[in-house]
Amino acid sequence: PHMARLRADGSLDLTFTNIANAGVNALVNLNNGGCLAAGYFSSVNGITMNNLARFSSNGNLDMSFNPAAISGGSGSVQAVAVQSNGFVVIGSDFTSVGGYSYQCVARLNAAGGVDTSFVGPGLIGPSSSAITAIVIETNGQMIVGGRFTSIDGYSELGVARLNSDGSLDTTFLTAV
Predict the structure, then answer these.
(1) Among residues of the chain, what percentage have pLDDT more than 90?
(2) What sign does the dihedral 57-63-64-69 (CA atoms) show?
């Protein structure tokens, strides 16, 4: 339930037998042939995974990845991207990650713990805002998209660029 793996020819890979307890919103391929899944689930194969799970190239759940818990909002991760150093940027409508205050976007280290050097943007408005797409640029900056109209008082209308530390890049302003 909630996830499957297809072979290159589109046929179902019956060796991938992982079971998430709720929906998957996003998948990212990893350089090592594995993948990262994000969504509404709180466990995979009965093991707590806090909305994120990493799988090895053979489809096994990567038990070395222990993602920090998110809270607030819908209780899901809606967007995920992996930086070249293996750090994981997540987006949704959460208000905290691992007990730290992060609104809608945060970064985890390669083991799943909160990267507190990521300051993240400040106030994202309106209150029902969510980050639903993340793209990592080659220079480390991030383009984020979603349901929001402002970040830190700047009109951003659903798309913005963040610096590598997560702060808003004010030189990249969307048309109003």
Answers:
(1) 78
(2) positive
Inter-residue contact 89 to 107 (CB < 8 Å): yes
Answering whether pTM is above 0.90, one says yes
- Checking phi first, is residue 4 left (phi over 0); if not, alpha (psi -120 to 50) or beta? beta
d(CA 165, CA 121): 9
Cα distance between residue 34 and residue 156, in whole Å:
34
Q: Which tokens is 40 given?
A: 């509404």
* Cis before 67 (ω within 30): no
The span from the CA of 162 to the CA of 176, in Å, is 18
Q: Please give the Cα distance from 109 to 126 (Å, whole number).
A: 28
Dump pLDDT digits (tens) for 83-93.
Answer: 999 999 999 99
Q: What is the DSSP string of 68-84?
A: PPEESTTSS--EEEE-T
Residue where the block lists tokens 């530390």: 165
